[in-house]
Design brief:
By secondary structure, this protein is an all-beta fold. Helix content is about 0%, strand content about 50%. Strands 3-2-1-26 form a four-stranded antiparallel β-sheet, with no helix packed on it. Strand 1 and strand 2 form a beta hairpin.
Amino acid sequence: MFQALLVLNPGNRSIARIDLADGSVTTVVDEAGAVPDGIAYDAAAGRIYWTTMGAPDFDPALPLDDDNFDFSPKNGSLESVALDGTDRWPVLPIGALTTGKQLDADFAAGQLYWSDREGRRVSRAGLDGTGLTDLVVNPATGDKAEECVGIAVDPAGNALYWTQKGPAKGGRGRIFRANLVVPEGETAATRTDIEVLWDHLPEPIDLWLDTTNRYLYWTDRGAEPAGNTLNRAPIPEPGESGSAPEILARGFAEAIGLAVDLEAGFAYVTDLSGNVRAVALDGTSDSVIAKFEGQSLTGIVGLP
């Protein structure tokens, strides 16, 4: 069971720890870089890994809206630090990726996986940054349909899952699956083993994979009633499409980060209003357990 949560706060560029026993909040990293977004934790090594989206360009003539920030400059990064905030070092320096989004890992194999939104790709690298490899590269379409956001890996099942949220509030979000290894003779841009599992979702963001019960969980920041929700659905068999998702919770203010504690029976969700909500998987409760006033939150991960 989770004893604490780590959450990313892009507003003040920090990583915060929330202790679940008493709700206390402490700062682990007070300068996490420009727009931290995806986070993973290696319990065996006691290390945190996180991505940054990098500093965006912004047109001052436009409203202060997330969709008016231009994250196309290639200035994202991937970093690591010990749980106590010491021994920080860059896994991939600023400029090694475009827009680092959700991060997942196979720590047993020493591999990190992430989506790169404006980079239109899914990539992996070793824990020390070596072996940087693209697994999926999408052609530019000009309408954001090609941008990769959420990610989840199933090493035992040799499967990679990711989201492409599509245009904001556009109802064109998709969830994909492919093998963890690009087929022989193919490339990340030409691979033919990609399946579309769900299509026409409001705007799916982060993923969480339950390999025990074969369920996929995801947040969605799209238009209501199906958007701004926490969802789950059984993982489809090869060649099959996903069934209609079960909505576990509604009413988020731009739902983003997701961590699920199956043993405790809770999903923890962050949103851009600064809330951390705990949603009981059996539907018995749904409550805000932490509020970061005037801030926004992105990635979240549990600490055992």
